[in-house]
Amino acid sequence: MNVFKLVIASLWALFAITPKVEASTANLYQVKSLKITTLSTMLANRGIGEWGYSALVEVDGRKILFDTGNRPQTVLQNVNDLKIDLSDVYDVILSHNHGDHTGGLVTLREHFAQLNPKALSNIHVGKGIFEKRAGRENSMLAMKKSLEQQGVTFSEYSKVTEIFPGVWLTGNVKRIHSERNWSGNGKIVTDHGHIEDNIPEDMSLVINTEDGFVLIAGCGHAGIINTMEHIVNNIHSNVISTAIGGFHLMNADDSHLAWTADKLKQFGLKNMMGAHCTGINSLYTLRSLLKSDRQHMVVGAVGDSFTLKDGVKAAAIAR
């Protein structure tokens, strides 16, 4: 009898708690305004193209720089050509340690700090970005030391974190599905020997909107589907309506692209600006499999943009 009462009490406790959990997730803050502009990738409508990625995220009056391109001067030249000011951007997100995403940081910081000492002074990174790599110097270590001497701060994230209302970082993404998209040649040095460098720090930006989540990735080394599952499992089971950036599908075969497209349908994807390592043919293949069109799924190019009001605005070269 006592056991029976205990079970009933436990069930009542479960039912009492569950509605509170649902309410807290259902009432996530939704951003009111959002514009994402590509500043670095291979194709360019204005400015110059390169093997790299960078985007300016303007959300509810706040500006965030996501990745900084490859060559030191590329993003700086492109923002000048696009008449974009980064002196009032305080926050920078680096998706991972590779130079094609971090190469412009020091130049941008030095240039815009002359206009505003706080410019690009808060750097957000995934845990693991500073790990020692075997056989090559991790440029992030020297960069961190130099920038910290200038008053720049670095924040590391291992878990999903809301950094501003409606603006989330994924932290480290669990690799559930086999979406292997790194070379496999790199090694991380640990106290117990070398382990494979699968770019553990890979981190994406997630923005909650009325139409669903907007995902911004640098290379998506954790895998686009792994990242999306991480989002719905750790933030909210919302649709992911938009994916922007690099998703490292350029070498994916037809069967993997078909599997990816099937999963993207389940997440409710409607818009995609596949830049950098996504792959031009892979983007077109996904567009066909998803029965989408050139108004909603395009190859990313410098100068293109996405807004909540107008959706995808492709650069002329990618229309």
Automatic annotation (TrEMBL):
It comes from the Bacteria. Residues 1-23 form the signal peptide. Keywords: Signal. One of its GO terms (molecular function) is transferase activity. InterPro entries: DHPS-like_MBL-fold (IPR041712), Metallo-B-lactamas (IPR001279), Metallo-beta-lactamase_dom (IPR052926), RibonucZ/Hydroxyglut_hydro (IPR036866). The keyword Transmembrane helix does not apply. Residues 53-112 form the Metallo-beta-lactamase domain. The keyword GTP-binding does not apply. It holds the Pfam family Lactamase_B. This is MBL fold metallo-hydrolase.
